[in-house]
Structure formats: C-alpha cells, structure tokens
Amino acid sequence: MRALVKYTSITNASDGKFFLASSHRAREEAILKTGIPYSFLRNNWYVENEIGGIQGAIAGAPWVTSAGTGKVGWVLRQDLAEAAANVLIGHGHENTIYELSGKPMIQVELVAALGDVLGEEILVQQVDDATYTDIMRGAGMPEAYLPMLVNTQKGIRDGGLEIQSND
C-alpha cells in the first residue's frame, strides 16, 4: 500500500486571494514537489467560526459585518470531518483536489436562516472596516485578533470564499 498525504487546505488555495490562501498554496506546492500521492481537502469557512455572532444574535444584538455582498460557502466541521474520513479510508483519492463548500451565500442570507431558526428577525448592520474593528474591540475581542477578523471580512467582501462546488 502506498502512502497518501491528506492535507486540509482552504478554498481556492492555488490561485485565491483570501489572506490565508498563500500559506496553504505554499504547503500544497511543497507536497506536490515530494511526488507522494496527495489529496487536498480545501475547506471553505466553518459555520463554527460564526459562533460569537450567533450568540450575539441570540442575545438580541445585530449581526455586524463589513463583508458587504461577498459570499461564503459555510460548512459544518462535522461534514468536513466526514469528507476527510472518506478520503482516508476510501480508494481512488490519489492526486485529487476537493473544494469542500456549502452553497455560497451572503451574510444577510445566513442571518435570515438563523432568524428562521430562532423565530425572530435579526438586524444586519453593514459597516466599514474601521467601524467593524471598533465594534469588535468594544465587544471585548482581544487586540491581537482584530486584524484577522478584518482581513476575513475583507476577504469575503473581495470574493475570496465564493466558490461553487459539488465536492
């Protein structure tokens, strides 16, 4: 039995502009250079990354975003774990790339679905990056995390997590 490197990457790592793509692209390229069979699992944004916003909405706060109309293919970690397990135990996954994503949607659509689950309307507050930073700081987000949060919003706004895939 031959080895298979399974690497968990990010959506559109090979040519994406999302701020996390370049480091994943470098890792994918390093794996390719080894000549070892590989399978790249390019995960879109985890729904679980939105827990803070979801908890805020449950408590009655608005959903704050500077992502504009950028789309994300949110996906549950559990679904990604199942996909990874299938690659690890299955056959025929040598030298493959899977773009693992949910249906791309804008923040307003995600929040509407959340509102349906909660049985109430949730206000979406679209702001610029500076205001977003101030709001996150005011909510107690550690200063060290603020650049990552803003880069995520910018990356979404710029289409970095918008990918259509049936993988």
TrEMBL record:
- UniProt xrefs under InterPro entries: NAD(P)-bd_dom_sf, NmrA-type_oxidoreductase
Judging by the UniProt lineage, the source's domain of life is Bacteria
Protein name per its UniProtKB record: Uncharacterized protein YbjT (DUF2867 family)
Query: What is the taxonomic lineage of the source species?
Result: Bacteria, Bacillati, Bacillota, Bacilli, Bacillales
